[in-house]
Specification:
By secondary structure, the chain is α+β, with helices and mostly antiparallel strands. Helix content is 55%, strand content 9%. The protein has 8 helices and 4 strands; from the N terminus they run βαβαββαααααα. β1, α1 and β2 form a beta-alpha-beta unit. The two termini are 34 Å apart. The relative contact order is 0.17.
Length: 217
């Protein structure tokens, strides 16, 4: 049964692998699942056909027969739970990997997204300069805690899992700020994720799509 996901027709990240469809592409590549990508314009994302797939008018979505999913975390969890390689067989290890997937989205990503919002949408506000150090410190607080947990391990809990896939995807969004570089073990952790063949295939596909669509680099 063919899997179809949606992605930006013109990705705002210019093919840097930061759009959330990259997470889903990566999971599908890790699982060895062939898939098709349907590109959606910003205008089409707000039209009834897409809203029927994603009620909030965003990407990615996932279609597999009659099953339609939205939210990158839910999609990655669905892929990981049904295909070998992204979640451990041991029940306890599996539960921990799922915990890390949720931690990436619920605990680590929010302050990173807040920083992006502060720079892109609030950078011209009169109070922006005074607020920015506080926003950056909230990112540092989370990364310091994550760094302490990771230590010198390769992955968060034993072998690579969907938890690592999601955490690496989230941490990549902090790289443009330079804060990730303040934590050498986290930088190395992200680099290990980027070095995985499945990630490379997902990244290169998203980059090709951005170039074909003429997205800004």
């Amino acid at each position: 049964m063919t899997v179809t996901i949606t992605a930006f027709e013109r990705s705002p990240d210019g093919g840097k692998g930061l759009a959330r469809d990259t997470r889903v592409r990566w999971a599908l590549e890790e699982a060895g699942i062939p898939f098709e990508v349907r590109h959606v314009s910003f205008a089409a994302m707000k039209e009834p056909a897409h809203l029927a797939l994603h009620p909030f008018g965003q990407i990615p979505t996932y279609e597999e027969g009659d099953l339609v999913l939205f939210e990158s975390g839910a999609i990655v969890f669905h892929i990981a739970s049904r295909h070998a390689g992204l979640l451990p067989d041991d029940p306890s290890a599996r539960a921990r990997a799922i915990t890390w997937l949720f931690a990436a989205l619920n605990t680590v990503e929010p302050p990173i997204l807040e920083l992006s919002t502060a720079k892109i949408l609030e950078g011209d506000k009169p109070w922006s300069e005074a607020r920015m150090p506080l926003v950056k410190d909230r990112v540092r607080a989370r990364l310091a805690q994550l760094s302490a947990h990771l230590g010198d391990a390769d992955w968060l809990d034993g072998a690579f899992s969907a938890g690592d896939l999601m955490m690496v995807s989230v941490l990549l969004r902090s790289r443009p700020s330079g804060i990730l570089d303040e934590y050498p073990n986290l930088s190395a952790y992200v680099a290990r994720g980027e070095a995985r063949p499945a990630y490379k295939r997902a990244y290169e596909a998203q980059l090709r799509d951005a170039i074909a669509a003429g997205s800004p680099g």
